[in-house]
User: Which sequence fits this backbone?
């Protein structure tokens, strides 16, 4: 894609990275081993949802007699 150039009466500006700004960048550091925050939160929220479903079924089974897994 062509670089976009804006011309005014005083200056000419060009958008996009220049060659001098790209040369000074360093490579990103490698990621640390292990699970990240997103993966940890996904696993914990799944376990909490499963526990909530089981506890609700336990309550319905023992109190109301209509649980799926826990019946009197």
Assistant:
């Amino acid at each position: 894609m062509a670089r976009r150039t804006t011309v005014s009466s005083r200056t000419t500006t060009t958008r996009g990275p220049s060659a001098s700004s790209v040369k000074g960048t360093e490579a990103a550091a490698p990621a640390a081993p292990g699970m990240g925050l997103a993966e940890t939160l996904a696993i914990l929220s799944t376990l909490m949802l499963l526990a909530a479903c089981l506890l609700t079924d336990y309550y319905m089974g023992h109190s109301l007699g209509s649980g799926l897994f826990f019946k009197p």
